[in-house]
Amino acid sequence: YPVILVDIDDGKVARGMEIIATTLKEGVERRIFRPEQAEQIQSRITGTSDWSDLADVDLAVEAVFEDESVKKKVFARLEEHCSPEAILATNTSSFLVTELAEGMEHPERFVGLHYFYHPAKNRLVEVIPGQATSDDVTQRAWSLQEQIGKTPIASADASGFVVNRYFVPWLNEAVRLMEEGVADIPTIEAAAIKTFRVGMGPFQLMNVTGVQIAMHAAETLGEKFGPFYAPTKALCDQVALGENWELEGSPDESKFAAIEERMLGAICYVAAQLVDEKVSTIEDTDIGARVGLRWPIGPFQLMNRIGVSKAAGLAGKIAAKWDLALPKTLSAQGDTPFTFQLVKSEVRDGVATLTLNRPDAMNALNEDLVGQLHDAFRKVAGDDSVRGIVIAGAGKGFIAGADIRFFVKNIKAKTLDRIVTFTQAGHDLLNDFAACPKPVIARMHGLALGGGLELALACHKIIASEKAMMAFPETGIGICPGLGGTQRSARRVGTGLASWLVLTGQMVPASKAAAIGLVDRVVPHGDLDEAVLAAIEEGPVHERTPGAVPDKFAATAALFDQATADDLLAGSVDTGDDESLAKAVKKVGTKAPVAVRLSVKMIREGAKGSLSDGLAMELAHLLEIFSTADAYEGLSTLGRKRPEFKGC
C-alpha cells in the first residue's frame, strides 16, 4: 500500500526515511527481503512536511512522543487536512483514547491503534475504540490491520490496554525482587527465562526497549491502579543513573522457586483482573502474549499449566500483600482449567459469521478448533433467523492447514487412531458445510493451505481477496490431502489441474485460482464483505462440475491428467519447450513418492464415482500414508530443513 510519512520539517522527514531504509537493508541482510522487494517497499513510501498531502489517505496514525498537548495539536492538523472519511488513529501507550479525542470535531472517527515494538517486525496491534468511536470505524480499522498482515486484538479504553497492563507489572515485580534482596539480577533473569520459557528475561528486555520506558509505563499504571503497579524505587533510581541493568553473574538456582512464585503471581493477578474489568478476553490476553511478547503460551495457558487453584493461590498472595481483592475470574474458576473460545460467532442482519480465532497459529486446525467450529456451525445452521453462514479466519490469513505438531506427536506416540478420529471429525464438519440448505461462504484472505483450502472447497462458494494465496503442500511433507482435497478440487477444476495442484504444491494467487475455477470471485480486500453478502443472496450450491479448462492451462491439465505417477516422479514426460511445465514436473520429483502415487490414484478413481465414495477412499488410505517413514520425515522436518524422502 502507498504510505506517506509526514513530520514537522524536511530534516525530520529525511531522518525518518533514513531509518526506514536502514531497517529494509537489515531485512535484506537477514534474507527476509530480496533486494528488489526492499526497493519496492521503499518506493511506496513518500516523505513530506506538507500536511496537505494527506488529503486522500484512508488512515492516519499519530506516533509522536507521549505528550498529550502535542498529540492533540497533531489531531487538530489531521482533522484540518484529511478527508472526512479518513480514520484518525493514535499509537499512544500512555493516554486514554477518549481523553485524546476531547476537542476533536469528529471523535467518532478516532480510534487507538497500539502497535508493538518493533512495529515493522511485530505483528500485534491493539485496537482500542474510545467512547465516541463508531462501530464502523472500529471495524474498518480492524480490517485494515488484517490487510497489512497485523494480528489485531480488541481492548477496552483502559490504562495499559491489554498487554502492557500485565507485562509492565511483570517487569516491575522483577525489579522489586531485586530491591527486596530476594535474588540478584542474573538469578531473576535465569528464573524468569526458565519459568516463562522465554528468550530474554525482564532486565534484558528493559535494556532492549528502554529502562525509562518501563518506568514511565509503571507510573501511568500506578496513578490509575495503585501502589502495586507503581514503579519501584530501584527502577526509578536506575533511570536516574541513565544506565542499563548489569546482567553479568552466575544465577543461584536455590532461589528460583521464590522468584517463580512472585513472577507468576503478578501475571496471574493482573491478567485475571483485566478480564474482570472487561478490558479484554482470556483469548485476546493470551494472543497478546504469544504474538506481541513472543511468549510460547499466554497468562491463562500458564494458569492451566500450573493448575488454576495454584494460580489463584499465587495471585492471592500478591493481592493480600497489597490489600487487593482476588479477581473473580480466578476465585470463581475453582480448579477447572480455562476454556479458550477458538471460534467467534456473530450474527448480523441474518448472516452468521464464524471466525476461526487462532491468528498466531494462522488458524491451523486442531481437535479443539474443529470441535468448536462444528458446534458453532450446528447452532447457526439450525437457527431460523440465520439465512447464510460465512466462514472466516482471524488475523493475516484464512487457515494454514492442520496443526502439524499434532500429526508429529501422534506418529511418534504410535497413536495413529487419533489422527484418524481427528480427520473423520473434519470430514463430518465439511460434509455438513456442503450439505447445508443455507448458503455457506468461505471468506478467504491471506493464506489458505492444505486443510484450510479443503475447508474452503467444502463451502458453497469461495470469495477471495486479491491478495489471497492457496496451495496443497501435503505431498511435499510426506502425506496426501485428507479432508477432501483430492475430491472436491477435481470437481471444481477437473482431474488434470487437481493433479497439478496436489502433486506440485504450487502456490496459486487468487487471480489464477479464479481463472481455473478454484475460487468463485476475487475482489479487493475492502470489498470482501460486500462480495460475501452478495454470494449469500445468490443461494447455496450443492453440485459442482468442472468447466472448460482455459487455453493457458490446457497443456498442464492434459499432461497431469494423462501421465503416470511414476513418470511424473522420474521426470520422464515430454514437456516440449514449455519451461513452466518442465518446472512443474521437476517439482513433482521432489515430493514423497508414496504420497504422489496415492494422490494420483485418489484423484482419478474418485472422479469416476460419487463424491461420498471419493471422500471415503481418502479416509481409507489415511493410515497407509501416515504409517510411512516419509510422512514422519516430511512433517518433522517442516521449517527446519528439506526432507529426504525414501519412498517408503
Automatic annotation (TrEMBL):
Family annotation (Pfam families): 3HCDH, 3HCDH_N, ECH_2
Domain spans labelled Enoyl-CoA hydratase/isomerase: 352-637
GO MF, any single term: enoyl-CoA hydratase activity
Catalytic activity as recorded in UniProt: a (3S)-3-hydroxyacyl-CoA + NAD(+) = a 3-oxoacyl-CoA + NADH + H(+)
GO biological processes: fatty acid beta-oxidation
Domain annotation 3-hydroxyacyl-CoA dehydrogenase C-terminal: ranges: 160-240, 261-312
Keywords of the record: NAD, Oxidoreductase
InterPro entries: 3-OHacyl-CoA_DH_NAD-bd, 3HC_DH_C, 6-PGluconate_DH-like_C_sf, ClpP/crotonase-like_dom_sf, ECH_dom, FA_oxidation_alpha_subunit, NAD(P)-bd_dom_sf
Alphabetized CDD domains for the sequence: crotonase-like
Residues of the 3-hydroxyacyl-CoA dehydrogenase NAD binding domain: 1-157
Top-rank taxon, per record: Bacteria
Name of this protein: Enoyl-CoA hydratase/isomerase family protein
Source organism per UniProt: Candidatus Polarisedimenticola svalbardensis
